[in-house]
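Exercise 7. Given the encoded structure of a 91-residue chain, write a plausible sequence.
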């Protein structure tokens, strides 16, 4: 799979939030497949197993609820091909 953009959740950019008390991911992961060279760094070092490689050695989001928004993946990607939007808790 190498879609241009794969998003972890169907959340529009204007609703980057979740209600207080509701468990869920702290980040929303977006992968820009056309920029990704498939080095696998993000998959290898994601501490919570959000990502995996597909049969073409490109990252896919397999466990979006586990994202802690640690930003390891998007700060180390050499191609700026992955972005994590932090989700804020609303009250
Ligand atoms: S922000 Fe952290 S937890 Fe979320 S996908 Fe990236 S490395 Fe994994
Ligand atoms: S670190 Fe960046 S270039 Fe490497 S596999 Fe992940 S998204 Fe693709």
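Solution.
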């Amino acid at each position: 799979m190498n879609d241009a953009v794969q998003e972890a959740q169907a959340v529009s950019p204007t609703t980057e939030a979740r209600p207080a008390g509701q468990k869920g991911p702290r980040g929303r992961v977006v992968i820009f497949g056309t920029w990704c060279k498939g080095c696998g760094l993000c998959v290898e070092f994601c501490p919570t197993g959000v990502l995996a490689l597909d049969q073409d050695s490109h990252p896919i989001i397999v466990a979006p609820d586990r994202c802690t928004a640690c930003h390891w993946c998007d700060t180390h990607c050499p191609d700026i091909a992955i972005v994590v939007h932090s989700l804020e808790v609303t009250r």
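Remark. The pocket of iron/sulfur cluster (ligand 1) is lined by residues 27, 29, 46-48, 50-51, 67-73, 84 (CB under 6 Å). Students should compare their own answers with the one above.
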